[in-house]
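#lab-general

N.A. 3:47 PM
ok so I finally got the sequence cleaned up, no stray characters, all 250 residues accounted for. can someone with queue access submit it? mine expired

B.Y. 3:52 PM
send it over

N.A. 3:53 PM
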Amino acid sequence: MNHINRIFRILVITSAISTSAIAADMPFKFTHYGNFKHMMHTGDDRGTVKLSEVPQQKNTWGLGALAGRTGEIIQMDGKILVSPGSDLNGKILPHDPNEQAFLFASGQVSKWHDISLSSDMNQSQLEAFILEEAKRLGLSTEQPFVFRLQGKYPQLRWHVVTGKKPQPVTEQTGSHTTHAKKHHVEKYIFNNPDARGQLIGIYSGPQLESVVTHPNEYFHAHYIDDQADISGHVEAYSVAKGTILKLPLQ
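B.Y. 4:20 PM
back already:
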């Protein structure tokens, strides 16, 4: 029995490590809490860190989701902003600093390299361009980093999760539910063609793919409008010529 208890304690400790980590060995003081893939497989979206406890120094930029997937988080120059799923319009509203995030990632950047895009780009073109420019600047694409976009988005689809579980599929439909779908929550989806504002993004690198991003994806971005009124998780976008891409230098 003692042997079993010992194994159980090891498993608990290992699970805690897998869902909460401060990556001291990564550039730009990159920090992350939670594990997206773990949530997709288990549905466990409990809080991993209080909002008051995430790094909030000046020059810190990040994103995440509230515990229970009840809202979205964006961090602008150290300031935490929350769009709760209780609001139908994706508005940023005051939050309790004791609220928790189930997923959060950020990096601290004191100097940016600005690139004015010379043409319109769709999402895949922009992501390839980010990697190309990152390598040109000497950034390791094996490591995570934050990036920013400031400008216009001819296509922009984003959402705010609500924490509410969807209605279960009935047996009469003959449908089956995958693990991923089983653990979905409802969300408000917004389409804003020709939107203006910022995208705060995370590039995961291979090490944190499916940890701070969706599985099989290396990019995760949140949108905020120029007035800082609305914000949420970006599903799809394109960028207009003249939009500024900001890559970290130090």
